[in-house]
Design goal:
The complex is a heterodimer of chains A (126) and B (447). Chain A has one domain (6-109). Helices cover 78% and strands 0% of the residues of chain A. Chain A contains five helices and no strands. Chain A has helices spanning 6-17, 19-40, 48-71, 82-109, 114-125. Chain B folds into two domains: 50-154 and 305-376, FAD/NAD(P)-binding domain (3-Layer(bba) Sandwich); 156-304, FAD/NAD(P)-binding domain. The radius of gyration of chain B is 22 Å and the shape is globular. The relative contact order of chain B is 0.16. Chain B has 447 residues and is of the alpha/beta class. Chain B has helices spanning 10-26, 28-31, 58-70, 91-95, 179-195, 213-228, 249-262, 308-311, 358-376, 425-443, and strands at residues 50-54, 75-79, 84-86, 105-107, 116-119, 123-127, 132-135, 140-142, 145-148, 153-154, 172-173, 197-202, 234-239, 264-267, 271-276, 281-286, 289-294, 297-299, 304-305, 343-345, 389-396, 399-405. The chains are: A mainly alpha (126), B alpha/beta (447). The structure holds flavin-adenine dinucleotide. Flavin-adenine dinucleotide binds at residues 54-60, 79-80, 82, 88-89, 91-92, 122-123, 149-151, 175-176, 209-210, 213, 307, 309, 347-349, 356-359, 361, 390-392 of chain B.
Chain lengths: 126, 447
């Protein structure tokens, strides 16, 4: 009975998500690779990439909160306890943080914010 | 008392269960690195013995997995003819149209560790005096230690006029008999939800598994009636076998409030004795004699007892409240047989107060396994089960109450921030999304 042992949590995650757990893990690995690539290529992650990622993340977070009850065959009318609203908020925040984290290197590598980089370097050269 | 990791204080463990469940749901990705393959650091033992497990349901499979990882040198045999494994806590969801039948069925083989020998037969006879079992296929098997995990016998035959074949016909429902019966029950409930009429619910006398399920079905039927527009044409009656709706007083009080709010009529000391499906009439035994009611929909919960092989063996209680139905005579704390020290019991078969839920198995199995290993090593068993019983009491499709209690009937919520007596979506989420994966992980020994 070692409830916090990572292997138990992992076993529950396997049973919960099945194949999708491995898709999720692969996606996480890909995001880490993208961060590495961004650093190697000298792309700035702050500024525009982070802003765009946060924007998409916010939309995803709100969407997650909107569909969460329906995904469990419930509706907003079934949110009866204070903890239900806290949970819903936590779902929204988790999705926001996750999406922002995952998309930041994507936007950086796509070149979002490169013009800002240019302006910054021009300024610093003067 | 020993407080090793194998034998932590019961309360400490209970506190973690639901957190683990929620973490499993929301934080899966972060958990992966390095976790796959590794097992919790439970002590292994070099002790050698032949351990036979009778029954490969929730309790038997959990015990097999735990024994296989903790006893690398022991020989382990599990006996059960069932090649399918059923996630029984999902039957109420199938019976109310939330899940498909296929969502509660899987293969038993998936959970049997490779080094465990599986005999696909029933135990026909237990002979604990010579430490031997005989199977329905004519084998006799000697053991050093025995775990009895046969679950219950569903006694539909004890209700006059009732048979399993009736489920889904003539307004008769019963989610207990299996996935097919649960799906047929949903078909009957869906017809009732449209048409309305007289709906009857209740539970049998004696010990039963998941005493919350009959209540859940009553409330889910009410919810379905409301959704389908038939509520105004329906009257719902819940028949309690004694003077309360639920054995834990604050839960009884809360249910009274819910029943009053939703117009469910509670009757006490009414036990279903007979049904006449042709006339759609049910007969209930009461202290004042039999009473009859017409029904359009009836949810039948059969009386439960030990399966024949246990009932007819010397293993059952010989006196006291568990003797008549043949429940296994185990010590309620150690899970060890009180007369045969090399016999342990896990799950529904145990003659103990409460404890007939899959959630109880999660706490009973490590206790029985730890104490069995102690016995193998010549030590005194010290691990203790406190009666932990849990049942998310679904009140609607979308809300539930997370009721957890111990032998004393004290509510022991795993999460301080979930009020057990408050209907909530989070408790529904646990029932609908988290229980099954946690249960399957338990069968694989991750408990
Ligand atoms: C409708 C319903 C709702 C439920 N809801 C919940 C819930 O919400 N939460 C919860 O925690 N629990 C719930 N439960 C209870 C839970 O499913 C049981 O407590 C749990 O399955 C008990 O495990 P067990 O191994 O003792 O019995 P089982 O899982 O029933 O397994 C017994 C096994 O023994 C085998 N067997 C029988 N006789 C013999 C023999 N002679 N020889 C060999 N093998 C034999 C059977 O084939 C079976 O495989 C519910 C149950 C039902 C029916």
């Amino acid at each position: 009975m070692n409830d916090f042992h990572p292997s138990i949590l992992f076993a529950i995650a396997q049973e919960t998500l099945g194949f999708w757990l491995y898709v999720g893990l692969a996606a996480l690995a890909l995001v880490l690779v993208l961060y590495g690539l961004s650093l190697v290529r000298g792309r700035r992650l702050r500024g525009a990439p982070l802003r765009y990622a946060a924007l998409v993340g916010a939309v995803a977070g709100v969407a997650a909160m909107a569909i969460a009850p329906a995904a469990t065959q419930a509706s907003f009318a079934h949110l009866l306890a204070a903890i239900d609203f806290i949970l819903l908020g936590a779902i929204g925040i988790s999705v926001f943080v996750g999406a922002t984290f995952a998309l930041t290197p994507v936007f950086a590598l796509l070149g979002f914010g490169r013009s800002e980089e240019g302006r910054v370097s021009l300024t610093s050269a003067q | 008392m020993d407080r090793t990791p194998q034998n932590p204080p019961p309360g400490a463990n209970l506190r973690l269960t639901r957190r683990q469940t929620l973490l499993g749901l929301v934080a899966t990705g972060a958990l992966a690195a390095g976790a796959a393959g590794a097992r919790p650091a439970v002590a292994q033992s070099a002790a050698q013995a032949h351990i036979v497990i009778a029954g490969a349901g929730a309790a038997g499979l959990t015990a097999a997995s735990q024994l296989a990882s903790r006893l690398p040198r022991a020989r382990i045999t599990i006996i059960d003819r069932n090649e399918r494994h059923y996630f029984q806590p999902g039957y109420t969801l199938v019976g109310s149209g939330v899940w498909e039948e296929s969502q509660v069925v899987t293969e038993t083989s998936r959970f049997i560790p490779s080094r465990v020998n599986w005999i696909k037969a029933d135990v026909a006879e237990f002979d604990p005096d010579v430490s031997r079992v005989a199977t329905s296929t004519g084998q006799t098997i000697d053991y050093d230690f025995l775990i009895v995990a046969t679950g219950v016998h569903l006694g539909y035959e004890a209700i006059e006029g009732m048979e399993e074949a009736l489920i889904g016909r003539e307004g008769v429902a019963s989610v207990y008999a299996g996935p097919e019966a649960a799906a047929a029950s949903w078909a009957a409930m869906a017809r009732f939800a449209e048409a309305g009429g007289q709906g009857h619910f209740g539970r049998p006398l004696g010990e039963m598994k998941c005493a919350g399920a009959p209540l859940k079905i009553a409330l889910l039927a009410e919810d379905r009636l409301t959704g389908a527009g038939g509520r105004g044409r329906a009257e719902l009656h819940y028949h309690a076998q004694n003077k309360v709706l639920f054995a834990v007083p604050p839960v009884h009080d809360k249910l009274l409030e819910i029943f009053a709010n939703r117009g469910v009529n509670a009757r006490y000391e009414h036990v279903l004795r007979a049904i006449d499906p042709g006339a759609r009439r049910a007969t209930y035994a009461t202290p004042d004699g039999d009473v009859e009611f017409d029904y359009d929909f009836i949810h039948v919960v059969p009386p439960m007892r030990a399966p024949d092989a246990v009932l007819n063996s010397p293993l059952g209680w010989r006196e006291g409240p568990y003797a008549k139905d043949g429940w296994l005579e185990v010590d309620r704390s150690s899970m060890r047989h009180t007369r045969y020290p090399n016999v342990f019991g896990i799950g529904d078969i145990n003659g103990v107060p409460r404890g007939k839920t899959a959630a109880s198995v999660k706490w009973q199995a490590p206790v029985a396994v730890t104490n069995l290993i102690a016995a193998m090593e010549g030590r005194e068993p010290t691990a203790i089960y406190n009666g932990y019983t849990s049942c998310p009491l679904v009140t609607r499709v979308g809300s539930a109450m997370l009721i957890e209690f111990d032998y004393d009937g004290t509510l022991i919520p795993s999460f301080p921030f979930i009020d057990p007596l408050q209907e909530s979506w989070i408790s529904w989420l646990i029932e609908e999304k988290a229980l099954k994966p946690t249960y399957y992980a338990m069968l694989r020994g991750y408990a």
